[in-house]
Write a structure and sequence with these properties.
The complex is a heterodimer of chains A (about 400) and B (about 70). Chain A is an alpha/beta fold and about 400 residues long. Chain A has 3 domains: about 5-45 and about 95-170 and about 260-330, FAD/NAD(P)-binding domain, CATH 3.50.50.60; about 55-95 and about 170-255, D-Amino Acid Oxidase, subunit A, domain 2 (D-Amino Acid Oxidase, Chain A, domain 2, 2-Layer Sandwich); about 335-385, no CATH class. Chain A is built from 11 helices and 16 strands. In chain A, the strands form 2 sheets. In chain A, strands 1, 2, 6, 7, 8, 9, 15 and 16 form an 8-stranded mixed sheet that branches. An 8-stranded mixed sheet of chain A has the order 3-5-4-11-12-13-10-14. In chain A, helix 1 (about 15-25) links the parallel strand 1 and strand 2. Chain B has one domain: Alpha-Beta Plaits, CATH 3.30.70. Chain B contains 2 helices and 6 strands; from the N terminus they run E-E-E-H-E-E-H-E. In chain B, a hairpin with a 2-residue loop joins strand 4 (about 35-40) and strand 5 (about 40-45). The termini of chain B are close together. The chains are: A alpha/beta (about 400), B alpha+beta (about 70). The interface between A and B is medium-sized, with 35 and 21 residues. One iron/sulfur cluster (SF4) binds near residues 20, 23, 25 and 64 of chain B. The site of one iron/sulfur cluster has 13 residues of chain B, from helix 2.
Chain lengths: ~400, ~70
């Protein structure tokens, strides 16, 4: 380890690892700190990702692909299944291995990594963030850095300590539980999404297949719903009704900040990426791909700031992110607020009208159009995507 | 009896660490940064907590409880 680094990254999830890789490739000295013993574990994720989302950063490799997906099945409250086929849409990952491999690409680019290092404060100099305080195997330490990148996931405390407002309104937090269960009889090329008051009010319930008859089964509900009924009790109901005898291999809790990106994701000496910056796609709740995109932009800009010796350059990150995805997420957020608040009756109607479209002509676009005709005000929001 | 003191009087928020999955969902919604979470350790930072209960509503697995009487010091 060096006595000081150009860039210290806190958190070794997908966003942190990609930021580390791009920063190191750009010529900066980089250290990534992770509080857990292992990179990539525990896995708090449904593990679904589009092919495009992965391929931008790493060549697909069967060792971290658990299932190949080419269909979506959307199940309305009355049980109607609307199936859409894609060719080669994406994967269900084995994130335990995937995250590990991503971290290895950062290491190959020259980044150093330290696990079991819990960051518990920041250093400041002239009002700028100038390093981190961390606990490592019971010892309190300090480390100077020109730039700190907070990739600390849903907690996002690093940003707060730098004065950024990172906490999420509890109504916008999708509070999730998931089990990975065995002996689940579903198609291994299909992602299943269930909607409705009984399964996941205001959110969705998922079954994502994994290799050898296992599947990730879970749901997310807003903290507003959680006030009355927890995600756990929804999951227990679903499992009792549908898979009472399936062995449970893993069970986890987790939070998805399903909202638009924070107002500010950089400040002097600090940048935020991934869930910590609230870069999740608010419509799907997916944050692996968008976190890697955020990480790549931040890592590249941070390295430029170091090599050009102009640290203020990091403040251009907010705009760069907004252009690439932030803007689009604002629209997705509006669509989310429209769609997830549909009544059961409306979900059923959409599924019925959708199923009247010939199978080969169905697409996600058609599904949205069908949904939109049930909520015309959303059309205005969607129209905006073409104008902005 | 000694009660733990929050920012706004008695602390009424009780995290049951034995049941916790250390997922960070509660930390992400806490407006006061009043929850400390390590790899497998969680506790409230008493003097920051306002008893607002947002962490309770957001815990997916019902680990945090509201204790009207106040949480006792150990
Ligand atoms: C139940 C569930 C299902 C999901 N399903 C999907 C899905 O199917 N597809 C999808 O794309 N997304 C999904 N997501 C979202 C996805 O998991 C996240 O968006 C993604 O992991 C974000 O990556 P990240 O690198 O920003 O953060 P993380 O992967 O959360 O990594 C953050 C890292 O920072 C570390 N850390 C935190 N604080 C500190 C500290 N103080 N010091 C040192 N290290 C620290 C943590 O230990 C962690 O390793 C799901 C989320 C949940 C909870
Ligand atoms: S009650 Fe409110 S202030 Fe206290 S820990 Fe929970 S969310 Fe934070
Ligand atoms: S939300 Fe619940 S399970 Fe997750 S860290 Fe907080 S108390 Fe633990």
């Amino acid at each position: 380890m060096k006595p000081e680094y150009d860039i210290v990254i806190v958190g070794a999830g997908p966003a942190g690892s990609i930021a580390a890789r791009f920063a190191a490739e750009g010529g900066a000295s980089v250290l990534m700190l992770e509080k857990d013993r292992d990179v990539g574990y525990p896995v708090r994720c449904g593990e679904a990702i589009s092919k495009a989302g992965v391929s931008e950063f790493i060549a697909p490799d069967e060792k971290w692909i658990s299932a190949h997906i080419n269909k979506f099945a959307l199940i309305s409250p009355d049980g109607t299944e609307a199936v859409i086929e894609f060719s080669d849409a994406g994967y269900v990952l084995e994130r335990r291995i995937f995250d590990y491999e991503l971290a290895k690409t950062a290491a190959k680019a020259g980044a150093e990594i330290l696990t079991r290092a819990y960051v518990n404060g920041l250093l400041f100099e002239d009002g700028k963030v100038s390093g981190v305080k961390y606990e490592y195997r019971g010892e309190q330490k300090e480390l100077k850095a020109k730039i700190v990148i907070g990739a600390d996931g849903v907690e996002s405390r690093i940003g707060r300590w730098a004065g950024l407002k990172t906490y999420v309104d509890f109504r916008e937090m999708e509070c999730c539980v998931q089990v990975t269960a065995s002996n689940i009889n579903v198609k291994d090329d299909t992602l299943y999404f269930y909607f409705g008051e009984n399964v996941a009010p205001g959110g969705y319930f998922w079954i994502f297949p994994k290799v050898n008859g296992a599947a990730n089964i879970g749901l997310g509900v807003s903290g507003m719903v959680g006030k009355k009924k927890s995600a756990l009790s929804f999951l227990n109901n679903f499992m009792e009704n549908n898979f009472p005898n399936s062995p449970i291999l893993t069970s986890i809790a987790g939070g998805v900040p399903s909202t638009i990106t924070l107002d500010k994701i950089s400040a002097p000496g600090i940048m935020l990426v991934g869930d910590a910056a609230r870069q999740v796609n608010p419509l799907s709740g997916g944050g692996i791909a968008s976190g890697m995109i955020g990480g790549s932009i931040a890592g590249k800009i941070a390295a430029e700031a170091i090599t050009n010796n102009s640290l203020d350059h990091i403040l251009t990150y907010d705009k760069a992110w907004h252009e690439r995805l932030g803007k689009r997420h604002e629209l997705f957020e509006k669509i989310k607020n429209g769609i997830y608040n549909f009544s059961d009756d409306k979900f059923n109607k959409i599924a019925h009208s959708f199923n009247k479209i010939p199978y080969e002509k169905r697409s996600l676009g058609k599904l949205f159009t069908t949904a939109l005709f049930n909520q015309p005000s959303l059309l205005v929001d969607v129209a905006k995507i073409f104008i902005i | 009896m000694n009660y733990r003191q929050a920012k706004t009087g008695k602390l009424m928020i009780d995290i049951l660490p034995d049941k916790c999955d250390f997922c960070g969902c509660c930390v992400g919604v806490c407006p006061e940064d009043a929850i400390e979470l390590k790899e497998a350790e969680i506790f409230i930072i008493d003097e920051r907590c306002t008893n607002c209960s947002k962490c309770i509503w957001s815990c997916p697995i019902e680990v945090i409880k509201f204790n009207k009487k106040g949480v006792l010091s150990k």
